[in-house]
Design brief:
With 331 residues, the chain is α/β, with parallel strands linked by helices. It has two domains: 255 residues, Aldolase class I (TIM Barrel, Alpha-Beta Barrel), CATH 3.20.20; 65 residues, no CATH class. The chain is 47% helix and 14% strand. It is built from 15 helices and nine strands. An eight-stranded parallel beta barrel has the order 1-2-4-5-6-7-8-9, surrounded by six helices. It is globular. The structure holds flavin mononucleotide (FMN).
Length: 331
């Protein structure tokens, strides 16, 4: 019954309810974006943040951070990858953004949510939420300096240590000229502590006239239904849940399309694990990176797929990629 009411609500909304794969530094790198967008359900993904300080990044640096730029900004599956910038010097951010435009980038996102102390110490990320006028200045400078056809968006948390400036920041982003705003429904101080405060998403959505993309704690289909119901947002961004349950977006799209929701079985998951390891090995020729990424991912999937517990135990102490490949093939 609850589902039925929800579907009626959806039919009143835009026909397209977009799912966006979240930017996640050190977790959703190019191989992970490649894999998850192949599995399906995502309409767009966002790169890990690229920090802008005093330098103009070279083409090689950009491609190292966001290899999709060299493939018309798309992942292997053809999903657009937005380039995310983090910084506080709006002039340098604009210079770098203009370089991205020269490289063919069409969509740029600004990070106002990163909680990392090093980043915040240099006045980047969530610390900017203490000064909405700085947020406005950054968005406005980029919007004014970029060609009109370049889509500029932003991502924020509810605030730094409280929500007092939440609406001021959202309005600063909208008035600065961003086309859409993703909100991770927590303050910086709340870190990742549950629950995410989805009630704020509705308040923000009603306070600005740009699209608000809901984000925070969508780990399963039911969470997706609940965040959309509570926020009234059409578009949802998924982060950790996308990594823990690689077919989450596919399940959501099946649901939205009125199809039977079919969660992946472990054989399919195992194929994805093998592919991910291959993609990581191809990315870096030192295999320590691939092994670390694989172990990190398996550690996150253990709670969803019980079989992963045994697989993780089998590879936990292995240090050579060919040993790991053998285990993955024989498992
Ligand atoms: C490991 C990790 C790295 C992250 N890196 C970024 C980042 O580079 N840029 C950004 O805007 N948000 C970043 N985030 C925040 C996520 O995009 C997202 O807002 C947050 O995880 C909440 O969504 P979720 O509950 O679906 O994971 C990161 C989160 C995690 C867990």
């Amino acid at each position: 019954m609850r589902y039925k009411v929800f579907m009626q609500h959806f039919s009143l909304c835009s026909p397209k309810n977009r799912l966006i794969l979240a930017p996640m530094q050190g977790l959703c790198d190019a191989p992970m974006r490649d894999l998850l967008t192949r599995i399906g359900g995502y309409d767009e993904c966002v790169s890990e943040f690229v920090r802008i300080t005093h330098t103009l990044h070279s083409r090689a640096t950009w491609l190292r951070h966001i290899p999709e730029i060299a493939q018309n900004n798309q992942t292997f599956a053809g999903v657009y990858c937005v380039s995310q910038l983090l910084g506080s010097d709006e002039k340098m951010m604009l210079q770098n953004a203009l370089r991205l435009v020269k490289l063919g980038v069409r969509k740029i996102d600004l990070n106002f949510g990163c909680p990392a102390p090093t980043v915040n110490k240099h006045q980047g990320g969530a610390v900017l939420l203490k000064t909405p006028e700085r947020v406005y200045q950054i968005v406005k400078t980029l919007r004014n300096g970029l060609p009109e056809q370049i889509v500029l968006t932003a991502k924020m948390r509810l605030g730094f240590d409280n929500t007092d400036l939440c609406l001021a920041n959202a309005q600063a982003i909208a008035n600065g000229g961003a086309a859409a705003l993703t909100v991770h429904a927590r303050t910086k101080v709340q870190g990742y502590e549950p629950p995410a405060h989805w009630e704020w998403l509705k308040i923000i959505r009603e306070a600005v006239d740009i699209d608000v993309i809901a984000n925070g704690d969508v780990f399963c289909l039911q969470d997706y239904i609940a965040i959309v119901e509570q926020s009234g947002c059409r578009d949802v961004m998924i982060g950790r849940g996308a990594v823990m349950r690689p077919d989450l977006a596919r399940q959501i799209k099946q649901y939205l399309n009125g199809q039977t929701v079919q969660a992946a079985d472990f054989n399919e998951v195992l194929d994805w694990i093998r592919l991910f390891f291959t993609l990581c090995c191809e990315k870096e020729n030192h295999h320590r990176y691939a092994i670390a990424r694989l172990k990190q991912w398996l550690g996150m999937m253990k709670n969803v797929y019980p079989e992963v517990i045994r697989l993780f135990a089998d590879i936990r102490t292995l240090k050579e990629s060919d040993e790991i490949e053998r285990v993955l093939q024989q498992f």
